[in-house]
Amino acid sequence: MTQSISTVRGISDTARWVAYFRARETERPDALFRDPYAERLAGTHGFQIANTLPDGNKHEWAWVARTYLFDQFLSRAIHQGAELIVNLAAGLDARPYRMNLPATLQWVEVDLPDIVSYKEEILRNEKPQCRVERVSLDLSDVPARRTLFAELDRRARKVVVASEGLLIYFTAEEVGSLAKDLAAGQHFQSWIIDLASPGQLRLMQRTTGRQLSEAGAAFKFGPSEGADFFARYGWDAKEVHGLLKTATQFKRAPVELLSLLPEPKGNPGNYPWTGVCLLEKR
Known about the structure:
Layout: H1 3-6, H2 13-26, H3 38-52, H4 60-79, E1 84-88, H5 95-98, E2 106-111, H6 113-122, E3 131-136, H7 142-153, E4 159-163, H8 172-183, E5 188-196, H9 198-206, H10 208-214, E6 235-242, H11 243-249, E7 274-281
Parallel strand pairs: 1-2, 1-4, 2-3, 4-5
Antiparallel strand pairs: 5-7, 6-7
Helix pairs in contact: 2-3, 2-4, 4-11
């Protein structure tokens, strides 16, 4: 294996890579968010991935825009009365520690055992802004996740789900199954996701995705229907925001990509598009 491939040992290492970009943004005087925990969470290995993986730093603007949009959607949901946030594939996200949150809010993070134990070790002496619980679970374990969702559904009247950086690693069938399981919860009202168009998925598969695939973290999901993919499973797209448009708004987008604006309306199809979507249950 080449050095660039060996830096990514598995899918959990992508969380360290993303934490690196949050640390970089935090250093800026005009930061869109500040995550004082990101540098520690990324660790030396997160910095190594970003700086040795081919194109590892090229799309920093997209990671930053994605984090910003998830922050905005979550803040609004909490302001509107969300009682429980369920963060699927939470990775090394530190929102319960860095955001201004009501102390009564419940925040449940779900991820693989290795990333949960690593995160708990790094943050063991930090105090979150709300009630935080971490669950070690492989979300591909369908019976186990259904049991968890049913238990969480009993905890609150208004539940909001966030799955940042998760769905692209699932097949369409697996995403549909997850969507159906979430919709089964009576109190699961909203779901915040990130999404890639088929054109963007193919582009990612040809570039950085080639190295990640060899480490067991292949990019798979980019539905031709866009956010409408979820309608058949009981979820309607209420808001959709493109990463490039958002990054351009805050002067983060590379100049060479500005020719791709304005973004297409409706289904992006083969257009190289990524965005964040707010889904609401019917």
